[in-house]
Hints:
Oligomer: heterodimer
Distance between the termini of chain A: 61 Å
Strand content of chain A: under 5%
Largest sheet of chain B: none
Helix content of chain A: over 70%
Number of strands of chain A: 0
Shape of chain B: globular
CATH superfamily of the largest domain in chain A: MetI-like
Amino acid sequence: MDALLLHPTTVGGKLLLMVIAIALFALIMALVLFLSELPKRLPSWVTALIFLLPALALVCFGLIYPALVTIKNSFFDETSESFVGLANFGTVLTDSDFLTTLRNTLAWVVLVPVLSTGIGLIYAVLVDRAKVEKVAKTLIFMPMAISMVGASIIWKFVYDNRVGSLSRAYVAVAGWFGDEDATAPQWLMNAPWNTFFLMIVMIWIQAGFAMTVLSASIKAIPDDIVEAGKLDGLTGIKLFRWVTVPMIRPALVVVMTTVAMTALKAFDIVRTMQGRLYHASVVANDFYTQSFNNHNKGVGAALAVLLFVIVVPVIAYNVNQLRKAEDIR
Amino acid sequence: MNGSVTTAQRGGQKKSAPGRTERAARAKRRLTSPWASAIAITIGLLWSVPTFGLLVTSFRGSTKDISSTGWWEAFKFSNWDDFSLEHYQTVLSGAGTSNLADYFINSVVMTLPAVIIPIFLALLAAYAFAWIPFRGSNILFVGIFALQVVPIQVAMVPLLTQYVKLGLNASFWVLWLSHAMFGLPLAIFLLHNFMKDIPRSLVEAARVDGAGHVTIFFRVILPLMVPAIASFGIFQFLWVWNDLLVALAFGGNTPDLAPITARLSDMAGSLGNRWHLLSAGAFVSMIVPVAVFLGLQRYFVRGLLAGSVKG
């Protein structure tokens, strides 16, 4: 029974369990639909509840209850037994390693959205209505399909000290300037610059997202507004600055905040490219290390809460901007 | 919340023909400016060369060459007979420590239910929000929408404790349930957005004909929801297949359970510079999501524009 329903070890067993799982939830769905019609004339809120119950149960079990426990744990010690007040937050905000982590996280949350949105926007404008637009866009968009782990390996190879493209290019350029026996720097080891080289991977992934959303909203700018701008004598960069950018402002805000949140929560790149070494860690990575490697529940929970607290102002700004945009319309 | 983007995009499709040609001409002028072309081409190269370099590396036979010469030297005339599939055989067949075939199967087994389960449950929930009026409907919907922004890190450790209590830990159920839970807020939000756009008259007409919820759900709603389901499905597929956090925290690193991302991340640490294995491994893990992505790109873009802010 255990091998069938919990821990299959053969390929056939795994596939069978997969089918069982899907069938189980199909059955739950059928049951809900069956119940919704059983006795005629149910009050509508009962019917609604029947439809909502499976989803609500999972959300409560998997998100709401655990989140509340985490908030509680952040005020307790590493085994969640004795109350320590704000000591965990004190540790996170004063320990020099954690401070480095916070500095790096701040850089990620600010620079990644700005650079990927900037690059995405420039690219969207440049290839808009060009002959090769579709191919050109797919090229930039493709990294969205690749896992951050895969992207990390792709870029680790670029940074490889002996055969990486970047290292070889560095040596070649140094050669032109007369330094024949230059060696490439250890891109991923020298803090604080290594954080920048890790961020490039995230920018590489997110620029495609920015480009796609911004390109759609650029195409949606009504022609008469562009014409009016031209009649006022605006061309080229000025037209871009005074007509295009203000028109797509809501989309810019959405893209920036979305990328900022992704950058804040992702730990895959740092984890895959260097773990907690060389002072390039971020909060999401420290959360993992503390919670699952060091088994320090208190500090782990405090870091998770910290992630949540950083998200709130970003969201508030986003909602506020969107409301403003609605008012104008 | 990204409604502005969606409506904006729809507006864009109704453009008049003269506007189009005018714009095309302007774009052509813009791209003929040498600076603009140079910038576009530079960005295009920076975004494709890294992947291409690793792809070439994965097909180079000589491991000694891989670790001592740049990948572009594979194209030197003297190296033309060096291309081989050897490294793919190595990573897939289980020679040494890097048998990826097992982990690949795990990824498949993990991903399919993790995509299908939230679609089932979210369809039911979205139906209730869109077509069954009840008190508190709006507040509840906004509450679920707001859950999208809660970082999943906040839920992970206590969730794991619960799984251990239930005796489910270190099984596929943990991966399926977790991904379903974490995907549900987005799924409900996205499917509801599409569902409420279904013309009320269609549903009313079915009701007048005496159809109950089951008939309306299967005959009227579901056929119209196929594109929306595809949009969310491809999102969730890429998310689950590419995820590392849930995989590492709940799936450990055993060949019985761990998906390919967990194994690869581990290889990147332990194999360091053995690029012949890492490159082939990376592309084994990428082939499925890239194929799905290229095939269903249309739906993916639609999902993005309909306001998908993944938590």
